[in-house]
Inverse folding.
């Protein structure tokens, strides 16, 4: 082994590392979840792995981690490449997380419909909830602007990392629906990121156009559909069919039933269910959906 | 020196107008006119014209059916007999020469000699050989039906507020007797191919340009207030009779039609161009707007075209169709009362737009070949 490359990020680390293994067959490629600074034991274990690496490919929000003196010292010896998390809500603007206020625990699985979280909290009949999945509601919620917002945010991340966003995003965009969910890019997209990393650490620039496939088991776990009104807007295939933990949910009604069951099972009451979101989404749902079904807050 | 490209609107720059927009949001329309809700909108042209017709109906606009189904005809039967599929039952009008001759025939300027073809045990109208599901028993009955039809066509040209004409092909077949141009080759959907009687024509740009100018001028003479919206069909040729690759012929054909449409729109103030061809063939679509046969347009592609059509030409009708009140069907034109098939014509209830199939005479070429042993895919 000529060198060791450590990839540390979130759940995307594994596929990026797989991509780098194909690009650097003579190197040892390691993948780790990148910890924050909160748990000293976890940071120590991470430091042991980092010690082995010649190149550290790291999630760009590493500020608190390198505040740790040991990590900081290790950092100084290594070549580093910063990468973003590929989060993009353009195709799946309705994905949010929820938790129980009482227990603080996330409702599983982690991804839920924001509209249904609000509907369950307000005890909206499933039939009435289904009627809220319309182009008009999506538009009023601002869902159609999340593509531009997401693109702008990603561009900022790539720029910060010194990676060629335009090259990455234009190639991803022309591949169609390039995300499984808002937080899970398809493997070929992570391969694009791996190629950009590879170019940064010495590969010929032309590798970007090589047709290299990487395996990905994520679609068995979760595939969130592009809703029909969103699909019509973006001119991409759409449906109301979900894959969740290898289970296929066909039709919006099935999904609403599934979601309400999850919310009931993992929260103490409708009022206990809490939307997790950056920004004033709770207020926006109240305003748009409340006006639509007359439920208010 | 000032750069003349500085300060142009975004749609003039590829990076801003094509590279940057979200998928599905490429918008090459720079229209300055709108269609009001009451305007009678007629459509004609190639198969792709039917997508526009369908959308006009779905949008609750006044889709002009100048040749409604006879009273008492069931909705299913009306569909089978292509009532409501076109503004009048002319079938597909692929070439501009066909359109000119349709006008001439409607106004008695041209009476083609070879107008009825034998088919099976009966006969078909050579200018719309697939308009009826079955052959007609006698030549006289075919001609009687054609006369009634042409009266409706005449009415349509004289009273439409908008005529949407989708240019489809430059290749066609003509009678050597009087130059009558047919929608499909004799022998495909009736008739007997005889090289002594029929010839292949691939219209050149000067011919198409002149034909289009003639057509527009003629329509304007009988209906000065009619606005004409030209489009070019993005559907490639199903087959070429030129001794070259079908894609090369397709490119030629579309280029000629596109040039003619552009020049007409530049020349006549009441003629407009709608870029459905550009939307479907755009590199931004990455081929996704074509079905797996790489010829037929996908619903996604049609949806994109129609979204732009609605956005620019009837912006006040942008609400989803389900939220709109359907408008009353257009009354039959006054002269329709003189029609032969039904003296007091009353339109059969229009079928749901989705139920109306797209009728494509051109595909009869391949169907006829398949019936005789041709395999489309090796």
């Amino acid at each position: 082994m000529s060198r060791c490359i450590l990839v540390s990020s979130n759940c995307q680390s594994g596929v990026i590392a797989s991509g780098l293994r194909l690009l650097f067959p003579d190197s040892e490629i390691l993948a780790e979840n990148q910890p924050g600074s909160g748990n000293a034991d976890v940071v120590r274990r991470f430091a042991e792995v980092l010690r082995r690496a010649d190149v550290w490919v790291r999630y760009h929000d590493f500020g608190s981690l390198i505040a740790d003196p040991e990590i900081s010292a290790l950092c100084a010896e290594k070549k580093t490449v910063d990468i973003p998390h590929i989060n993009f809500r353009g195709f799946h603007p309705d994905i949010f997380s929820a938790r129980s206020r009482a227990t603080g625990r996330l409702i599983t699985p982690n991804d839920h419909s924001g509209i249904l979280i609000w509907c369950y909290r307000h005890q909206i009949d499933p039939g009435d909830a289904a009627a809220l999945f319309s182009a008009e509601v999506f538009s009023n919620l601002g869902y159609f602007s999340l593509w531009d917002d997401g693109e702008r945010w990603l561009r900022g991340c790539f720029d910060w990392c010194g990676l060629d966003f335009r090259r990455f995003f234009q190639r991803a965009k022309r591949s169609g629906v390039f995300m499984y969910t808002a937080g899970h890019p398809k493997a070929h997209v992570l391969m694009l990121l791996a190629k950009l990393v590879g170019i940064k650490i010495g590969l010929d620039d032309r590798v970007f156009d090589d047709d290299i496939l990487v395996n990905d088991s994520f679609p068995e776990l979760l595939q969130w559909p592009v809703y029909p009104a969103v699909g019509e807007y973006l001119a991409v295939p759409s449906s109301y069919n979900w894959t969740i933990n290898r289970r296929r949910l066909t039709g919006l009604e099935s999904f609403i039933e599934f979601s309400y069951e999850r919310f009931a099972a993992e929260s103490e009451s409708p009022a206990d269910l809490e939307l997790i979101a950056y920004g004033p989404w709770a207020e926006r749902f109240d305003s748009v959906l409340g006006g639509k079904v007359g439920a208010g807050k | 020196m000032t750069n003349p490209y500085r300060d142009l609107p975004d749609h003039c720059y590829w990076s801003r107008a094509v590279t940057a927009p979200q998928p599905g949001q490429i918008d090459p329309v720079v229209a300055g006119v709108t269609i009001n809700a009451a305007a009678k909108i007629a459509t004609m042209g190639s198969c792709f014209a039917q997508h526009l017709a369908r959308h006009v109906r779905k949008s609750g606009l006044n889709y002009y059916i100048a040749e409604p189904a006879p009273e008492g005809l069931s909705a299913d039967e009306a569909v089978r007999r292509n009532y409501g599929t076109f503004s009048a039952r002319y079938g597909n009008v692929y070439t501009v020469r066909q359109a000119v001759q349709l006008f001439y025939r409607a106004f008695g300027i041209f009476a083609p000699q070879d107008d009825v073809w034998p088919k099976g045990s009966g006969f078909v109208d050579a200018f719309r050989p697939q308009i009826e599901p079955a052959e007609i028993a006698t030549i006289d009955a075919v001609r009687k039906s054609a006369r009634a039809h042409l009266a409706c066509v005449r009415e349509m040209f004289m009273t439409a507020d908008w005529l949407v004409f989708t240019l489809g092909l430059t290749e066609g077949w003509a009678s050597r007797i009087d130059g009558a141009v047919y929608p499909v080759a004799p022998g495909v959907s009736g008739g007997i191919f005889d090289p002594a009687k029929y010839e292949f024509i691939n219209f050149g740009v000067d011919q198409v340009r002149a034909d289009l100018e003639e057509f527009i001028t003629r329509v304007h003479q009988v209906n000065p207030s009619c606005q004409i919206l030209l489009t070019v069909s993005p559907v490639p040729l199903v087959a070429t009779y030129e001794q070259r690759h079908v894609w090369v012929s397709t490119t030629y054909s579309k280029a000629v039609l596109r040039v003619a449409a552009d020049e007409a729109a530049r020349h006549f103030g009441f003629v407009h161009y709608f870029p459905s061809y550009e939307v479907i063939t755009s590199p931004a679509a990455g081929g996704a707007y074509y079905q797996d046969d790489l010829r037929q347009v996908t619903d996604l592609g049609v949806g994109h075209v129609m979204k732009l059509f609605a956005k620019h030409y009837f912006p006040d009708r942008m609400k989803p169709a389900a939220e709109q009140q359907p408008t009353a069907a257009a009354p039959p034109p006054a002269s329709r009362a003189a029609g032969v098939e039904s003296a007091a014509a009353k339109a059969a209830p229009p079928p749901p737009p989705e139920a109306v199939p797209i009728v494509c005479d051109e595909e009869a070429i391949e169907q006829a070949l398949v019936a005789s042993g041709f395999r489309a895919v090796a």
In short: Chain A has 14 helices and twelve strands. Chain A touches chain B at residues 90, 134-136, 147-148, 170, 173-174, 176, 231-237 (CB under 8 Å). Residues 95-144+224-293 of chain A form one domain. The mean pLDDT of chain A is 93.
